[in-house]
Amino acid sequence: MSDDHVYLTLAEGHEDDTRWAYGTGFEDPLHGVDTAVPEGVDAGELAALCVTLADDALVAAQRLAEWTTRAPELEEEVALANIGLDLLGQARLLYSRAGQADGTGRDEDAYAYFRDAGDFRNVRLAELPNGDFAFSVVRLLVFASWRLAHFERLTAHRDPVLAAIAAKGVKELAYHRQYAAEWAVRLGDGTEESHRRTRKAQEQVAPYLGELFTAYDVRDEVVAVLRQVTEAAGLPMPVYRPLPGSGRAGEHTEHLAPLLAELQGVARAHPEATW
Predict the structure, then answer these.
(1) Structural domain total, the chain
(2) GO terms for biological process (predicted)?
(3) What's the CATH number where 68 sits?
(4) How many angstroms separate the CA atoms of 253 and 84, rounded?
């Protein structure tokens, strides 16, 4: 199966989405949206959900930013950076909503820069080091497929703010998933070396998949996407052997703390600094 065929089939249901998500529109996704927490929605649960989704996006964006000046080609460097910016935009909106919902009024900087690693609730897949390009592609394919499935469901959330954030994110994530799918096929169905590296990346990512399916009923949908891509790439589906623990419970790998130290260093050294 060609990567063009994968693009056409995965794009079904997203026909109006551009293949370049970042910068396609600058309308405020929350314009005109009532920011009051609706009656019947638990504000604490809403805030916690927003924080977990934001932490996933922030940490993933930071990893993608590390490809700047290091990607195999300039075009891929720009693409990965812009995918990271999409995720960073999602994190900012979600952190702001969390601060509104929990009544603390905390802004996005408070969540991003002034919490320690144990306070973060991102899935561990997002915090793993980039490795080679094949690993980052496979990791992005899994992450984007899973997050897209989540966000499609969240467009119907009872909180109109979260629903609006999800609706904007769906368009971005559809492109993220497609970008990664096309590269996974090229690498898996490419040279012997690229095939070997992509298969190794699958094996490295597989233990972290179990953590992704603990909330929402998205497993079958995500696995179907991964199976479609791996078949097109001439790759086997990896065997899932979930690792114990969960980033959602604050149980992280040794890689998160140094990543956050790099992200948070300037803000913590100069907490009152302004431009």
Answers:
(1) 1
(2) phenylacetate catabolic process
(3) 1.20.1260.10
(4) 21
